[in-house]
C-alpha cells in the first residue's frame, strides 16, 4: 500500500514534488526544516483506501517526481539538496503563482464591494454561488484523470465533494434569506461561476498547488466577510429565526459529509447549536475557516486526508503539527 501510495503523485509532478513541498514549508509557512520533514512523515496519502478491491491503476512513469534518490537521502539526513538553483526557481514560481492569485482575488473583491456594499444577503448569494465552483472543478479534473487511468485519489474526491456540499447549503441558506431575489444578482453570479469553473479547471491542470492556493484566498476572504458581518449585525441577528434549511443541515441526523470536509479535526468533534440567525452565520463563518485549512493542507502533496480514514487517536498524535493549518489557525 505504501509503495502504491508513493506513486500517486498528481499529474503536475513537475511542480508538486516532495522537495517543492519542502520549499513551501520553508518559504511560505516559515517553519524549520525539521518540522517540515517530520510533518511529511506523519501524513500519508490514503488515496487508495477505497479501491483496495479494485484493479490497480498504473501510474505513468513520466509523472514521477523530479527529486533524485540522492537528494532525498540528503534531505532526510538534514543536508541541503545539490540542485539549489532548481529550488530557487521553484520558490519564484510559487511566489508568482501566489501573487497572481492575490491579484485575482483582490480584483473580484473590489467589484463585489462596489456592487454590494449595502446589500449583504445578495453579496453572500453571489459569493456562495462562486465559492462552490472550485470543488466541482477539482472533482472534474480528478475524474478525468481517473478516466484516463492515470491515478485514483478517492480521499480528494470525497473531501472536495463534502466541501461542495457544505457550500451548496450556504447557498441554499442565502436563497432562503432572499439573496437571490433579483435577476441581476443571479445573472452576475451564474456567469462569474461559469468563467470561474473553466479558469479553475485550467489552473488545476497546470498547477494544483496554485489552484488550491487560489481557493484558500477565496475561503479566507469569505471568512473575513462573515466575521465582519457578525460583529456589525450580531445583536440584530440574534433576534431573527434561523432558516429551516440551516437547522436541517447543521443539526440533522446524518452529519457524515459535514465532518468530511473538516480535515483538521476528527469526526463528531464539531456539532453546532442553531437557535437563531446569529448561530447560522457563526457556523457559516467557521465552515469557511475549515475550508481554508483544508485548502492550505492540499497545497502540500500528501497532506490531505479524509477525517474518516484515520482512527480518532491519530488526530491527537499529530495534533502538535501545525504545518498545513498555520495561517488558517488565525481565523478561529
Ligand atoms: Fe460558503
Ligand atoms: Fe467557502
UniProtKB/TrEMBL annotation:
<dbReference type="GO" id="GO:0046872">
    <property type="term" value="F:metal ion binding"/>
</dbReference>
<dbReference type="InterPro" id="IPR002680">
    <property type="entry name" value="AOX"/>
</dbReference>
<keyword id="KW-0812">Transmembrane</keyword>
<keyword id="KW-0249">Electron transport</keyword>
<dbReference type="GO" id="GO:0016020">
    <property type="term" value="C:membrane"/>
</dbReference>
<keyword id="KW-0472">Membrane</keyword>
<dbReference type="GO" id="GO:0009657">
    <property type="term" value="P:plastid organization"/>
</dbReference>
<dbReference type="GO" id="GO:0009916">
    <property type="term" value="F:alternative oxidase activity"/>
</dbReference>
<dbReference type="GO" id="GO:0102721">
    <property type="term" value="F:ubiquinol:oxygen oxidoreductase activity"/>
</dbReference>
<dbReference type="GO" id="GO:0016117">
    <property type="term" value="P:carotenoid biosynthetic process"/>
</dbReference>
<dbReference type="GO" id="GO:0106292">
    <property type="term" value="F:superoxide-generating NADPH oxidase activity"/>
</dbReference>
<keyword id="KW-0408">Iron</keyword>
<keyword id="KW-0560">Oxidoreductase</keyword>
<comment type="similarity">
    <text>Belongs to the alternative oxidase family.</text>
</comment>
<protein>
    <recommendedName>
        <fullName>Ubiquinol oxidase</fullName>
        <ecNumber>1.10.3.11</ecNumber>
    </recommendedName>
</protein>
<keyword id="KW-0479">Metal-binding</keyword>
<dbReference type="GO" id="GO:0098803">
    <property type="term" value="C:respiratory chain complex"/>
</dbReference>
<feature type="transmembrane region" description="Helical">
    <location>
        <begin position="124"/>
        <end position="145"/>
    </location>
</feature>
<dbReference type="Pfam" id="PF01786">
    <property type="entry name" value="AOX"/>
</dbReference>
<dbReference type="InterPro" id="IPR038659">
    <property type="entry name" value="AOX_sf"/>
</dbReference>
<feature type="transmembrane region" description="Helical">
    <location>
        <begin position="187"/>
        <end position="206"/>
    </location>
</feature>
<dbReference type="GO" id="GO:0010230">
    <property type="term" value="P:alternative respiration"/>
</dbReference>
<keyword id="KW-0813">Transport</keyword>
<keyword id="KW-1133">Transmembrane helix</keyword>
<keyword id="KW-0679">Respiratory chain</keyword>
<dbReference type="GO" id="GO:0005739">
    <property type="term" value="C:mitochondrion"/>
</dbReference>
<dbReference type="GO" id="GO:0009579">
    <property type="term" value="C:thylakoid"/>
</dbReference>
Amino acid at each position: 500500500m505504501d509503495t502504491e501510495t508513493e506513486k500517486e503523485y498528481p499529474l503536475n509532478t513537475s511542480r508538486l514534488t516532495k522537495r517543492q513541498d519542502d520549499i513551501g514549508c520553508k518559504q511560505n509557512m516559515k517553519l524549520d526544516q525539521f518540522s517540515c520533514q517530520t510533518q511529511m512523515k506523519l501524513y500519508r496519502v490514503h488515496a487508495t483506501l477505497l479501491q483496495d478491491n479494485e484493479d490497480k491503476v498504473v501510474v505513468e512513469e513520466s509523472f514521477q517526481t523530479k527529486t533524485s534518490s540522492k537528494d532525498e537521502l540528503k534531505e532526510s539526513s538534514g543536508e541541503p539538496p545539490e540542485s539549489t538553483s532548481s529550488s530557487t526557481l521553484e520558490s519564484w514560481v510559487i511566489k508568482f503563482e501566489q501573487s497572481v492569485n492575490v491579484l485575482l482575488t483582490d480584483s473580484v473583491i473590489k467589484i463585489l464591494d462596489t456592487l454590494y456594499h449595502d446589500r449583504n444577503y445578495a453579496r453572500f448569494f453571489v459569493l456562495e454561488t462562486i465559492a462552490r465552483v472550485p470543488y466541482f472543478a477539482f472533482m472534474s479534473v480528478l475524474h478525468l484523470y481517473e478516466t484516463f487511468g492515470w491515478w485514483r485519489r478517492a480521499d480528494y474526491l470525497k473531501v472536495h465533494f463534502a466541501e461542495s456540499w457544505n457550500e451548496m447549503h450556504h447557498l441554499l441558506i442565502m436563497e432562503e434569506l432572499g439573496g437571490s431575489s433579483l435577476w441581476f444578482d443571479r445573472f452576475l453570479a451564474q456567469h462569474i461561476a461559469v468563467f470561474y469553473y473553466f479558469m479553475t479547471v485550467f489552473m488545476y491542470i497546470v498547477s494544483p498547488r496554485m489552484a488550491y492556493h487560489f481557493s484558500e484566498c477565496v475561503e479566507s476572504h469569505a471568512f473575513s466577510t462573515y466575521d465582519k458581518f457578525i460583529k456589525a449585525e450580531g445583536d440584530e441577528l440574534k433576534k431573527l429565526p434561523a432558516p429551516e434549511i440551516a437547522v436541517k443541515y447543521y443539526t440533522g441526523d446524518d452529519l457524515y459529509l459535514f465532518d468530511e470536509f473538516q480535515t483538521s479535526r476528527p469526526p463528531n468533534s464539531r456539532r453546532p447549536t442553531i437557535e437563531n440567525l446569529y448561530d447560522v452565520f457563526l457556523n457559516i463563518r467557521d465552515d469557511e475557516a475549515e475550508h481554508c485549512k483544508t485548502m492550505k493542507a492540499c497545497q502540500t502533496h500528501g497532506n490531505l486526508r479524509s477525517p474518516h480514514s484515520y482512527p480518532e487517536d491519530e488526530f491527537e498524535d499529530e495534533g502538535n503539527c501545525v504545518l498545513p493549518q498555520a495561517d488558517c489557525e488565525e481565523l478561529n
